[in-house]
Design brief:
Layout: H1 9-14, E1 20-21, H2 31-35, E2 41-45, H3 51-59, E3 64-69, H4 72-85, E4 98-102, E5 117-123, H5 141-150, E6 151-161, H6 164-176, E7 180-185, H7 201-208, E8 214-219, H8 222-233
Parallel strand pairs: 1-4, 2-3, 2-5, 3-4, 5-6
Antiparallel strand pairs: 6-8, 7-8
Helix pairs in contact: 3-4
């Protein structure tokens, strides 16, 4: 992926330490201190232009969000999106529960300490369709092992894609890794755009074209598993009188 950024983009990023973290590895194990509270931390790995993570942070002030991408230009665009989403903030005005980090996801263990994160979002990741590139897919077993280390007892992965092949690969990868799945959907917006969920820029375009969106949630943390299993054990409501 090649992005043509504006001249002086790195200087622009450096002027926004209130929102942009250019050395996230230095905050490994210290993200709660960075946010100034002990609220849960949710991370989007591969945030693109930032619509999803910005809107989530606006809707849920009691959760801290980190958007991660490796391209300067995407970080610049995501910062603009975030400030607009939060009411048109100027540079220097802090969004208390949002950070945008410049980082290569492959080295995610250098960015987060064990059990530091509550949720990982993987939205429309590169499908890497050629078999020889399978290890680069963000749902490959090697990546799942890394996510399992940084996720805490309430840890979950929420995954969305427009690629049927990647979805099939991912379901098999989750199963082969012994992970529990729930809320599997082969066409998330079949009955209309899900207003209870936040969409990415790609997702809105795909929806307008009538393309199916594949989604599932992966339950990893011990507490999350107990909650999930307890919900399954509850008797279903009936309409019998």
């Amino acid at each position: 992926m090649r992005l043509r950024g504006r001249k002086g983009i790195r200087q622009s990023l450096e002027r926004q330490p209130d929102l942009i973290v250019l050395d996230p590895a230095s905050l490994k194990g210290q993200w709660s201190r960075h946010f100034g509270n002990s609220n849960p931390i949710h991370v989007e790995l591969g945030m693109g232009k930032g619509r999803f993570i910005s809107e989530l942070s606006r809707r849920n002030p009691g959760i801290n969000y980190i958007g991660v991408d490796m391209y300067d230009e995407l970080l610049r665009r995501a910062a603009e999106k975030a400030r607009l989403c939060h009411g048109g903030l100027e540079e220097g005005q802090r969004i208390p529960n949002l950070a945008l980090a410049l980082f290569n996801i492959e080295h995610v263990l250098d960015m987060f300490e064990a059990e530091e994160i509550e949720r990982v979002y993987l939205n429309f990741s590169d499908p890497w369709p050629k078999k020889r590139h399978a290890r680069r897919r963000l749902t490959h077993a090697n990546f799942l092992q890394k996510y399992s280390r940084i996720l805490n007892n309430s840890g979950e992965i929420h995954f969305k894609t427009d690629s049927r092949d990647l979805f099939e690969f991912s379901l098999n990868s989750f199963a082969d890794s012994g992970l529990r799945m729930r809320s599997i959907s082969l066409d998330l917006h079949q009955e209309g755009l899900r207003e209870d969920m936040v969409q990415t820029e790609y997702e809105l375009k795909f929806f307008e074209k009538g393309m199916p969106i594949y989604r599932c949630e992966v339950v990893i943390g011990a507490d999350a598993l107990r909650v999930h299993e307890a919900a399954l054990a509850e008797p279903e409501e009936t309409n019998e009188s």
